[in-house]
Each structure stands twice: as structure tokens, then as C-alpha cells.
Amino acid sequence: MEQKADIALIGLAVMGQNLILNMNDHGYTVVAFNRTVSKVDEFLNDAAKGRKTIIGAHSIQEMAALLKRPRKVMLMVKAGQAVDDFIELVLPHLEPGDLIIDGGNSHFPDTIRRTKYLESKGLLYIGTGVSGGEEGARFGPSMMPGGSVKAWPLVKDIFQAIAAKTPDGTPCCDWMGEDGAGHYVKMTHNGIEYGDMQLICEAYQLLKEGLGMSNEEMHAVLTEWNKGELDSYLVEITRDILAYKDAQGDYVVDKILDTAGQKGTGKWTSVSSLDLGMPVTLIGEAVYARCLSAMKDDRVAASKILQGPKFQFSGDKKAFVEDIRQALLASKIVSYAQGFMLLREAAKEYHWNLNYPSIAMVWRAGCIIRSVFLGKIKDAFARNPNLSNLLLDDYFTGVIERCQGSWRRAVAKAVEAGIPAPAFTTALAFYDGYRSARLPANLLQAQRDYFGAHTYERIDQPRGKFFHTNWTGKGGSVSAGTYTV
Ligand code: NBP
After folding, report:
1. Which residue is closest in CA terms to ligand 1's atom 11?
2. How many angstroms does the Cα of residue 103 sit away from the middle of ligand 1?
3. Is 186 known to be catalytic?
4. Which one of 39, 72, 178, 186 is the catalytic residue?
5. Residue 405, CA distances (Å) to 186, 323, 423, 428 in order
6. Cα–Cα distance for residue pair 408/406, rounded to 1 Å
7. What's the pLDDT score for residue 462?
């Protein structure tokens, strides 16, 4: 059999089919395979009809035989066991130097494990985040590959050809780092996506319930917002959603049940932030907000018992809309600052050499969080690659300073009105905590020492020296082992 194909792709669901068409548009010959083999011919006779350089394979053996060497096999299957199963099925048909790529939403510890496993067999492995959904896969996703360093030159051209491009033409795909780095960056992207969506939802509820705005009015507000600093895919689709009517002329958004689903990447981000001791509070609140929304029956029952304040907005409506816009922008800056703090800590923990300007650039287009704002983040890290926190970049410090009054008014008004705004609120609390040279943790340490002899450090002694007080006069002088969390 002639070895003519550049790459094989296994998994002919929405992402796989569209990635194959995208690769083929860029001149690559692709072999298509799927667990349910009948879907191969369905694909060839439907979406891939007439494309001679998309070749169907009806077995893994046939697929492998069609590939140029070193062979490149990309999996676009359900994350989890399916990836391990396919690795085992493909392995006997590959040889040292060949490459397996997992483009699904795999959890990064799995990618670390799989990279080690395949490298131990002399093969190469890439776990790549692919973002942008169906349309991204078809016309230009944002891609975040990581894994065996030697594998990057083998796929760089294909990946950068099919990836989205920033307004200046740079591909939204770059090497993220060793083993699980790509999937970690993708996980963090998804966590930030949770945060962005929650922030927009809170702005929506403040406009709707705080100001009593109609869908049409909110559509107009978001149309304006999308022309400025908040110009982004998520604001753009929210603008369109607010105006969308069904065949009966009713707004579809008003008919949708208010219980949010989740597939786990936001939760993974929050769990990782807790594991690494990083206060990524906004993404955490966004995950919990989805959990609370899912408790629909409980909420309906509680709404009949638990009273809130009676609230009627009085004041300058237009000015408050601007307060909400600025609260959204400032909270978003905090969320991205937290996201990059997490990436920095993960890089330390897992020994990745993450390139922060490159991450911002890869997210600039093609993915769900794409925005003008990410261009500013890229500039900040390009100005100072060692920037310890986005909030300390001159541009972002200036924006926060400008937005601060509005941000506080919006949060205060939400609290006063009894409208939940957990992401706005936690962002502001983080900001105030982060800029505090002294927090009340002195008292907390005293409490810990009081009941558990956990010891404390003193402001008048060098760091690392621990003290214990016999607070009650009844305890002994023995302290517990020190530990930090
Ligand atoms: P799905 O996540 O729905 O997966 C469908 C594919 O997985 C089919 O090829 C199916 O084969 C195969 N598969 C399943 Br399901 N269970 C399997 C098993 N036990 N063993 C082998 N193959 C199995 O497809 P998708 O929505 O295209 O997503 C593909 C990957 O990309 C996922 O990891 C997803 O999280 C990720 N992703 C999706 C999006 C999106 O917008 N959909 C965006 C970004 C990333 P079959 O045809 O035989 O059932």
C-alpha cells in the first residue's frame, strides 16, 4: 500500500470530522478512522465527499499502512478510557519515532502518564488542547500542544496551518511545554472561560433585575460593550442570544431553564488551584455558581421562605450601566491574573517552561475566550516576561484604578439589592486582599496556636522561626509540628 498520508485521525464525531476537513483544506492528506467503522464511509460519502486526499481506513492496520513515516496518529475521541484503549490498539502498528497525538479534553495527569509510557516505548506523544468548538475545528482552532519535545517539529507545520490566526497573522498554536503542559493550559483556558461566562451572567442579572432592562435594551448595551475594551467572542454571542426570538416571536433566552451543566474542566482547574495553594477564587465561584444553579428544586422551595431586601433602583440608570461594565472589566482582569498565577505555580510544580506571552497569543483568536483583552495581556508579558502578577503591569494597574469606583458601586448595589454576584464580589475581595500588606491572619495563627499548638512566626523575628504561647496557662510548652497550607 502506498504510504501517502501525512496524518491519521481517529474519532469521527464533530471535532474529528471538522479537523480532518480543515487539514485537508491546507493541503494535507488525511486518513480517517473511527471505532464504529461504518462512520468512516458515512463521512466519506457526506462531509468529505469528492475529496480524494481524505482516505478512509477500515482497520487500524490499514490506517497505519497508509501513513508516511514517522507516522502521526491523532485521537479525537471521548476523553478518559477511550484514549488509553486506542493507544493500546494503535501501538502494535507503530514503531519507535512514530507519534500519537491526543486532541481531546484529557486531564493533564493522564497526559503526563501517557507521555512517559509512550516515551518508554521509544514513541513520541503529544496531548494538545483544541479550543473553538465545531467552527474552530473547521476553520481555525486555538491549539495548545505539549508532550514529547521532539514531537513538536513533526506537527508544527500542520498545526500552525490549521490554527486560527491573530489579527496580525500569527498562528494561535505554539508549543506549550513538556508532557501535560498543553492540556494544563487548555484546562486553565476552560476555567477562565467558566469565569468569563459567569461574569457576563452577573452583569446580565444586574441589568435585568437591578435596572429592570428588557432583552432589547440589554442587547443594545452589549452591542456597545462589544465595541470597546470588552470586545470578545463571549460578549458578542451574548449580545446575539439576547436578541434571538423563536418562531412564536418569544425570546429563547427567557424560555431556557436556569440550571447550568458542566463537563469538569472548571472543576479540574479549581481542584488544581487548591492542590497548588493558589487563590483562583473567581473560577471557583463560577464552578459553585453552576452547582447552585443546578439545585433548582431547592431554590424554588427556598424562594418561598427566605426573604431578601425590597429593592427599587433610583438614580442614574445610564451611569449604573457604565458601573456594571467597569465592574465586569476589572473582575475579568482579576480572573486572568489569577489564571496566570495558577499557570506560574503549575510550571514550578511540574517543571514546565511555560511561555506566558505565547499562551496569551494562542488564546487571542480561535478559542472561546478570544478577545481584544488578550492582546493586552500578551503585550504585558512581552514587556516583562518575568511579570509576577498581571495586576502589577502598568496598563492593567491603570485600568483597575480607573474602574475601581464603578466596581465597588456595582458590588455594593448588588449586595444592597440582594442580587447574587459571586464572581464580581470575589474578584474585588481578592483585589483588596492582594493589595493588603497586612491581613488578619495574625489572629488566625493565634487561634491555631491556641487550640492546636500549631505555632506562629513573629513580626519582630526572622522568618522561619516559630513560637508557641501557652494561652490558657493550662497547656504545656510542647508545640505541634509546623505545616503550611
Ligand atoms: P465525543 O467526545 O462525543 O466523542 C466521540 C468519539 O469518541 C467517537 O469517535 C466515538 O466513537 C469515540 N468513542 C467514545 Br464516545 N467512546 C469510546 C470508547 N470507549 N472507545 C473508543 N472510542 C470511543 O466527540 P467530540 O465532541 O468530537 O469531542 C472529541 C474530543 O474533543 C473530546 O475529548 C472532547 O472533550 C474534545 N473537545 C470537544 C469540543 C466540542 O465542542 N465538542 C471542543 C473541544 C474539545 P463511536 O463513533 O464509535 O461512538
Report:
1. 35
2. 10
3. yes
4. 186
5. 34, 8, 17, 11
6. 5
7. 98
Cα 253 to its chain centre, rounded Å, is 24
Predicted local distance difference test score (pLDDT) of residue 1: 62
Task: Tell me the best of 12, 14, 15 to mutate to test the pocket of ligand 1, counting ligand atoms within 8 Å of each CB and taking the most.
Answer: 15
Residue 131: all three cell numbers together: 479550543
**pTM metric for this prediction:** 0.96
Angle between helices 152-162 and 14-25 (to 10 degrees): 90
Give the pLDDT of residue 480.
Answer: 79
Q: Is 472 left (phi over 0), alpha (psi -120 to 50) or beta?
A: alpha
Q: Are 405 and 411 in contact (CB under 8 A)?
A: no
Average pLDDT rounded to a whole number, residues 255-281? 96
Task: State pLDDT tens for residues 274-313.
Answer: 999 999 999 999 999 999 999 999 999 999 999 999 999 9
Condensed to tens digits (0 to 9), the pLDDT of residues 427-475 reads: 999 999 999 999 999 999 999 999 999 999 999 999 999 999 999 998 7
Residue minimizing CA distance to atom 49 of ligand 1: 36
Q: How far is the CA of 76 from the centre of ligand 1 (A)?
A: 6
* 95 part of the active site: no
* Strand order, beta sheet including 99-102: 54-56, 30-33, 7-10, 72-75, 99-102, 124-131, 142-147, 177-178
CA dist., res. 77 & res. 87, Å (int):
11
Pocket (CB within 6 angstroms of ligand 1): 11-16, 34-36, 39, 76-79, 81-82, 85-86, 104-105, 130-131, 133-134
CA quadruple 392, 395, 398, 399: dihedral, nearest 10: -110
Which atom belonging to ligand 1 lies closest to the Cα atom of 79? 33
Question: Ligand 1: which of 77, 233, 368 to mutate, judged by most atoms within 8 Å of the beta carbon?
Answer: 77
Q: Which tens digit of pLDDT belongs to each residue from 148-167? A: 999 999 999 999 999 999 99
Percentage with pLDDT > 70 across the chain: 99
| Segment holding 113, helix H or strand E | helix 108-120
> CA 456, CA 294: separation in Å to the nearest integer?
41
Mean pLDDT of all residues in the chain? 96
Q: How far is the CA of 79 from the centre of ligand 1 (A)?
A: 7
